[in-house]
Amino acid sequence: MSEFDYTLEERTDRDITSKLYSSFFAVSDIAFVVAEVDTSKWNVNIQLVDLAGQPVLKSMVLEVYMSSDPDDIIPSGATSWAITAAGAGTLVLDTTAGEIATFQTDAEGKLDITLTETGALTSYMIAKLPNGELSVSDLITFVA
Predict the structure, then answer these.
(1) Structural domain count, the chain
(2) Is the Cβ–Cβ distance between 111 and 46 less than 8 Å?
(3) What are the CA-CA distances from residue 15 to residues 6, 11, 28 (Å)?
(4) CATH number at residue 70
């Protein structure tokens, strides 16, 4: 019997182990760091993390938007906020105000975003994970 000959049971165990290992190191959440620059500007730093809370060191595409409700899947529709890449990561698909923007993280799973709002707005940044789940930032408040 060669090293490549396995019983069906052994092959299934290896497949399950491989899938568990892959899913464990897949993106399961985002670590947000939200910092106010001034009353109309906030910086949001994003790090992709796995189930153990460890950084996922690979580039991925994320859709992000703002919403006034942390459980909401609908963008807030704010008319005057702007979202731009500010360091790590790249803006892939620009957005009109209040809609979804698409970014690509850098090779270390990081993304730096600057949010600018000219009016008053209290909102959350919501990012759609590769598995379809949503990750929500702390509350962000812009003062007019």
Answers:
(1) 1
(2) yes
(3) 12, 6, 21
(4) 2.60.40.10
